[in-house]
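Before relying on records like the one below, remember that each one covers exactly one chain. Contacts with other chains, cofactors or solvent are not represented anywhere in the record.
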Amino acid sequence: MMDSINETHCTVADLLPNAQYELWVTATNTTGISPASEKALYMTVPSPPVIKQRECSSCPEAALIRWESGNTNPVDSYTVELREMGADGTESTVPTCQCLIQLQPGQRYLISVRAVNIGGPSDRSEPISITTTGTFFYLLEDTAHPCLSISEDGFTIFYGDEELPISMFKCQCLYRCVAVLGDLIPVRGRHYWEVEVDDGTEFRIGVAYEDTERNSYLGANSTSWCMRHILSPSRHKYEFLHNGWSPDLRITVNPVRIGVALDYDRGTLSFFNVNLEQHLHTFHCHFQNYVHPCFSLDNPGALTVHNSIEAPEYTFI
């Protein structure tokens, strides 16, 4: 690109973001063109990142923010800008496209990201709002069995009548389960969510390590824990499975909204009938790694996940 001007300065427009250019100047008079000046290197600032809100999660103590660079060439770093409502903002610099941010419970924050190179920072990304009233996660659609469909808001799971063979299952999901995973941020604290169910749906809900065996049902191995509902001709049966074993328990009132309370520090995973404020069962375990919430349907039906809920007092006594 070459511009001809009569001034001692020039504005060069339409440059690509996050790109390096060489600039030089020649002078022209009636006798000809001078030799070129020394070349100057100039780096344009990056494009603003795009926060992937459907892949962000939070809990009362922290939030995991993920974004896309929006730039073809690599950038040097990213600046995450955090502003609590009614307070001054803070900044932190990270090298990759995600950041785990420590937060205060019961607050609302605005979070935006800038990309930075030697030319300077980009404009801010579109901000997202995070509220730390409870644990918040989306269902990971890329882990869902092909039989399942997820609502547009990402919180209701549907299973139709079509049966697919095991060979059709996606490799990310638990092969023998018509299942989907939730994304839980890696914070060792207390987490709580609720699942709305109905009497006619057979399901498994619980948690599993990321490396849970793919040829096993939820609760059938040492790396997953679940509550299972089974329909029989005479009654509704509930099991609390880990490593293929369940205690002998009888639940007399079928729960329609189940609370799940995960406490990493105490090593407990508890289930509750929310409407009755009734404790159903607690697993006592030492979690070696972080876990994902898991949701599985064993017959056609639907489950709805409710999160970003403040845990009731009775759940962590």
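The chain is about 0% helix and 40% strand.
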